[in-house]
Design brief:
alpha+beta, binds flavin mononucleotide, globular, NADH Oxidase, 4 strands, 10 helices, about 250 residues
């Protein structure tokens, strides 16, 4: 181990229980400066990072409060303006561009999380914003009508109580493949099911009651993941409309 690996292995999400202590603005700036060091496709940094420190605004937008929130947005607007200024055009507003920019944006967000932890600041990555009507998010953040999409938020702060055990992970053997994809067999699937059932492994979300569901993953699939329901279909439709309105989802002409 070295200090970088120590930091990475100490990562944990604080699920909303942040105390009132404010992260100094210089520290937030250091975290953002580090986050933009992440790799980015074609050196175009197709994201913008909006820093929030208003608790009410955070609560409204993401459903959590912390010292600060970094809203990582996919952003092609800046590039379009640059192109326009030079009399050129830039049109990557399609699903390929969106996926690529989402990778840039996510890498920057995760780098912020690592930088924060190395400075003793905890975090929560959340997509809570996507549970809100898109118009509300756009209005609150004064986002341009198209070409910007708030992808993910990183909340920064200090935990209220520091006794939360770290969440586990699947054994690396279950996620690593050598050379080609290896289909997990029934024995391996059963190992994973058992691993999730083991409370000492801390793999799951911690809300499963074995009296109601035989296995954690049964609770997960049947209760936690809302399987196709009218309400869910509506959410997917609204999300797809949001992407379309932002110009990222190509409508067939
Ligand atoms: C895309 C994404 C969205 C997430 N959204 C939430 C959220 O809304 N609320 C929450 O408490 N945790 C959220 N998390 C955190 C995960 O629950 C957490 O990373 C996972 O349970 C593993 O725990 P750990 O980060 O403490 O190891 C999110 C993580 C990711 C990557």
């Amino acid at each position: 181990m070295n200090t970088v690996l120590d930091t990475v292995h100490s990562l944990r999400s604080i699920h909303g229980r942040f105390c009132d202590r404010r992260v100094p603005d210089e520290t937030v700036r250091t975290i953002v400066d580090a986050s933009v060091r992440a790799a980015n496709a074609s050196a175009r940094q197709s994201y913008s990072i909006i820093v929030l420190d208003d608790h009410d605004q955070m609560q409204t937008l993401v459903g959590y409060q912390a010292s600060h929130a970094l809203v990582f947005c996919v952003d092609f607007h800046r590039l379009s303006l640059l192109a326009e200024r030079l009399g050129c055009s830039f049109d990557e507003n399609n699903i390929i561009g969106f996926v690529t920019a989402s990778i840039d944006t996510s890498l920057a967000a995760q780098t912020a999380v690592i930088a924060a932890r190395s400075l003793g600041v905890d975090s929560l990555i959340t997509n809570g914003m996507h549970r809100n009507p898109p118009e509300l998010v756009h209005q609150e953040l004064n986002l341009p009508t198209t070409s910007v999409f708030p992808l993910i938020t990183v909340l920064l702060g200090y935990p209220l109580d520091d006794d939360q055990p770290p969440r586990g992970r699947l054994r690396t053997e279950h996620v690593i493949h050598q050379g080609t994809y290896r289909e997990p067999d029934a024995a391996e699937l059963d190992q994973i099911i058992t691993a999730y059932d083991d409370p000492t492994g801390g793999l799951g979300l911690g809300q499963w009651d074995p009296r109601d569901f035989e296995h954690y993953l049964k609770w997960f699939f049947q209760r936690w993941c809302s399987s196709p329901s009218p309400q869910n279909t509506e959410r997917v439709r609204a999300f797809q409309k949001y992407l379309t309105d932002s110009g990222f989802w190509w409508k067939e002409q």
